[in-house]
Every structure is written in structure tokens, then in C-alpha cells.
Amino acid sequence: MNALKQELKENIIEQLNLEEFTVEDIDNDDALFGDGLGLDSIDALELIVMLDKDYGIKLTDPEKSKEIFQSINVLAEYITEHRTK
Amino acid sequence: MAAEWDGKSRGTVFGFKVFVFFIKNFGIRAAYALMHLPIPYFCLFSRKNVRGLFYYFRKRKHYSWFQSSLNIYKGYYQFGQTLVDRIAIQSGLRDKYTYEFDGIENLKETLALNKGGILISAHVGNFEMAQYFFNDLDEEANISIVITDQDHENIKEYVSSVINRKQDNFIIVKDDMSHIFEINAALTQNKMVCISGDRYMDVAKTIEASLLGKQAKFPVGPFLLATRLEVPVLFVYVMREPKRHYHLYARKVAVTRRDASGLLTKYTQSLEEILNQYPLQWFNFYDFWDDID
Among all residues of chain B, which has the CA nearest to that of A16? Predict the structure, then answer.
């Protein structure tokens, strides 16, 4: 699980080009959108594409996704339960 | 005066009903002729739009005062014609028009990649006609048009007032970000997602670039999407030509990842080329450059 969280942070930083952040800067409980990392809707789209590509998870429900993208902790838990690759 | 579009289209529903009646009973030419009736009304009472259009012709295209005034009328008339054409084609009169598929191979190549594609268009010509070109191209080819909620309310109103048409090809931009999922779903199904690159609502984040020699604001969303999703990007316009002829332009664009402003510059250059060829078909009837006192 910790390895997955680490991997997620690295991927998010790389994928979303968050140059000002390092893995250490992102707390497992930090909000990804809004006040936390301050990601926007296009970042969300990139994350959705990433989840599909890397873990075979297809997100289609906006409400559900809001919950999943709450924090690294929630996201990692969801991936562990639902990943197909 | 704010430069963003105020989201209102004057007299749309009533106008459409009249057009449909005329087209069906008296033909397309009669409907064109009918367009001369509301234009003086617009010229007199739609001051804001007239000023926006005059500014475009006089300051941006550098026509004389007289030519600019004349072009306001001509521009409105062409806009009216595009509305008539759209209704005529939607109500089954497709054969009354001729079509030119310029750059259609770019669309075919894009479809063959099976990654979907982002089409960036503008409020010039008659973009809504693009889907009829696409139907010819391939039965599978499908476009989804990304529009704002306000646009959608207007379209819903008039479309349902005149024709029974399925509206599942619209993706509506909403606060809950549901449009993000729809865009993603459309791309995975190899659909073309079409976004207008030139008009923004006051809520949208904007990015500046020069168009016709003067800085203007553009919505940042379409350019961010197109430079970050690693799907093919094309500029697409459907322009009206004399004798009921429509000319589709589909141009492939080389995109540098994350370079939204670079893509915007290419977009404004391509838009300028189109406006040089079709100066009357600029249909952003407002203070686009935010330069009118």
C-alpha cells in the first residue's frame, strides 16, 4: 500500500507537471483538488486517463470520482480494491 | 464594457419558427429574402452588437467608415443565411447545397488512429454543419460538441421548437465536472470532441493572444485540453460560399505538450487566415477585444 501511495504521488507529479511539488510535499491526507494541491478539472481528466491506463480502472460517475480523488489515502485504497492490472 | 459574451441570442425561437415555415412552404430563397426584415431592426436596436461588429470591420479589418457600416448589414445577412441553411439542411433539404471536403483526409487519418480527436473551431461560418459532413465521412464518425449551459438552454429551446432531433451529441460544461467524464468517454469511443476556441463566459479562465493585431481574451480550457490529452488536434471551420456552397476546412495541428499558449497562437493565426478569406463571417457580435469605451 505504501509503495502504491509513493507511486501515485510520483505519477501525479510527473503526469500533471507539478514542478513545485516533491513526493514529500504531498501528505497522504492532503486534498487533491481545491485547497490542497489545487488541481483543476483538466487535471482531473488526466488523472482519469491515468487510472484507466495504469490500473485498468474506468471512472464514469462524477460523484464517485469526487470521493475517490479526495486524497492519496482514499485513492490508493480504491485502486487496491478495484485494479484490474 | 465587458468583453465576454452575455449569453443571450435575440429573438431566437420566434425567428426559427418563421424560418422553418418559410423554408418549407416558399423555399430557401424566400427565407433568405425574409432575412432582410429583421436586419434593420437589429441594426437600430441592437446597439451593443452593432458596435462590436463595426469595431471589428473598422478597427481590426481596417475598412473605411462607409464600407464597415455596409458590412454590418452584409454580415448580419450572411449570418441569417447560415441560420436558414442550417434549418433547411436539418429538415431534409441537404441536396439543395453543394459541399467541399477540404482536408477530409486529415479527419480520416485521425479516425484511423482510434484515439478520438479534439476539433477546435470558432464562431465563424456555420460550424454546426460539420456534423453533416461527418455523416458522409463514416457512419461511425461521431462528434460531440462541448457547449456551456447557457448555450445549451438556447439550443434546446429552438431545436425542440422546430425539429425532433436527438441531442445526445452535446457535452454541457457544468460545475460538477461531469463534462470531463463525458469528454473522456467520447474520446475513448473514438469520437471527435469539438470545442469553440474563441468565446468565453465570465466564469471561465482566460488566456490572451493577439488576433488581427490586438490582444484579446480566449478561454483557456480548450487549449489546455488539447495540449494535455495526447490526442490528435485539428482546427475545423465550415464556411459559407456563394450559390449555396459549403466549404469544410480541417487542418491538422502539431501540438507541443503543455504548451497551451503556443497552440493558441497557432489558432489565432489560422483564424486570421479564415477571416481574411471570409471577412463577413465573423459571428462574435460583441466587444470581442474589450476595446470599446
Answer: B228
Contact A62 B221 (CB under 8 A): no
pLDDT (mean) for B13-40: 82
Could A45 and B258 be called an inter-chain contact, meaning their C-beta atoms sit closer than 8 Å? no
A2-82 folds as 1.10.1200
Contacts of residue B82, defined as CB under 8 A and 6 or more positions apart, other chains included, come to B125, B126, B240, B281, B283
CB contact B254 to A (< 8 Å): no
Q: Contact B193/B143 with Cβ under 8 angstroms?
A: yes
The dihedrals phi and psi of B236, each to the nearest 5 degrees, come to -130, 130
pLDDT tens by residue, B215-256: 999 988 899 999 988 899 999 999 999 999 999 999 999 999
Q: What is the per-residue pLDDT across A30-78, written as a single tens digit (0 to 9) for each?
A: 888 877 777 878 888 889 989 988 999 988 887 888 888 889 999 999 9
B185 touches chain A (CB under 8 A): yes
What is this structure's pTM?
0.86
Q: At what angle do helices B47-55 and B38-45 cross, to 10 degrees?
A: 90
Q: Higher pLDDT residue, A18 or B54?
A: B54
Question: Does residue B24 register a pLDDT over 90?
Answer: no
**Spatial distance between the Cα atoms of B168 and B25, rounded to a whole number of angstroms:** 29
How far is residue A77's CA from residue B5's CA, in Å, rounded to a whole number? 44
Cβ proximity of B147 and B155 under 8 Å = yes
The CA distance from A21 to A18, in Å, is: 6
The identity of residue A66, as a single letter, is K
Nearest CB to A41 within list B180, B229, B258:
B180
B175-209 per-residue burial string, b: 16 or more CB within 10 A, e: under 16: eebbbbbbbbbbbeebbbbbbbbbbbeeebeebeb
What is the pairing mode between strands B233-241 and B214-219?
unpaired
ipTM for the complex? Answer: 0.78
Q: Where are the domains of chain A?
A: 2-82
Task: Please name the helix (run of DSSP H) or strand (run of DSSP E) that holds residue B193, with its range, or none.
Answer: strand B192-196
Confidence category of residue B151, pLDDT binned at 50, 70, 90 = low
Rounded Cα gap, residues A13 and A23, in angstroms: 8
